[in-house]
TrEMBL record:
It comes from Marinifilum caeruleilacunae. It holds the Pfam family Thi_PPkinase_C. The keyword RNA-binding does not apply. The lineage of its organism: Bacteria, Pseudomonadati, Bacteroidota, Bacteroidia, Marinilabiliales. It is an enzyme of class 2 (transferase). Coiled coil: none annotated. It comes from the Bacteria. This is Thiamine diphosphokinase.
């Protein structure tokens, strides 16, 4: 049975229609701490608020006291706390919004946390420009002709083979993170096969 949550992190609020649709249609919006300040402005209701509460307005802290889950540990960031909470509540699909923008270092950290989450739950990160999908096994992707695609390989020893991308890889390593960027789909789907992993795949909208 599908149980889906949308996590709103405290980065740049989404502007593209695709992430906004996910947010507006969700009945299970999980806010990372101060992200509730932005959700309030959109007149949307949170299902839960997760974090150390260091950036939550006092008035909102009182208003939502019944759905706040306080985690004071500094060993993980609020996004990871929210993902872990969703997993504990038996969600099996998570869409992450608001995890990019504002601070570039936070954005990079959030993107490269995705493979850690993907070991436990189906997850994607939607930005205002495209979607990051972590994968732990070979798979096909729905696409469209000339869609911009990038592949990031945190493990430089991973052997990667692609089908239906303009710049094909054949049992090739991406030893530097930039080497798999700026590729392009040749049709309505493409495939990525690999040994090792994980990988992070970016597709523009």
């Amino acid at each position: 049975m599908q149980k889906k949550a949308v996590i709103l992190a405290n980065g740049a609020f989404p502007t593209h229609e695709i992430p906004l649709k996910e947010l507006k249609e969700s009945k299970h919006i999980i806010c990372c701490d101060g992200a509730i300040n932005k959700l309030e402005k959109e007149a949307l209701e949170p299902f839960a608020i997760i974090g150390d509460l260091d950036s939550l307005d006092p008035e909102l802290k009182w208003k939502y006291k019944d759905i706040i889950h306080h985690f004071s540990s500094q060993d993980t960031n609020d996004l990871t706390k929210a993902v872990d909470w969703c997993i504990s509540q038996k969600y099996n699909e998570i869409i992450i919004l608001g995890a990019t923008g504002q601070r570039d270092d936070h954005m990079i950290g959030n993107v490269f946390l995705l493979p850690q989450y993907a070991k436990k739950v189906r997850v994607k990160m939607l930005t205002s420009y495209g979607v990051f999908t972590p994968i732990v096994r070979s798979r096909n992707f729905e696409s469209y002709t000339r869609q911009q695609v990038s592949i990031f390989s945190p493990n430089s020893e991973t052997l990667i083979t692609t089908a239906n991308l303009r710049y094909a890889l054949t049992n090739q390593k991406l030893e530097l993170l930039w080497q798999g960027t700026l590729n392009e789909s040749m049709g309505d789907s493409f495939r990525i096969e690999f040994e090792g992993g994980p990988l992070i795949v970016y597709q523009e909208y």
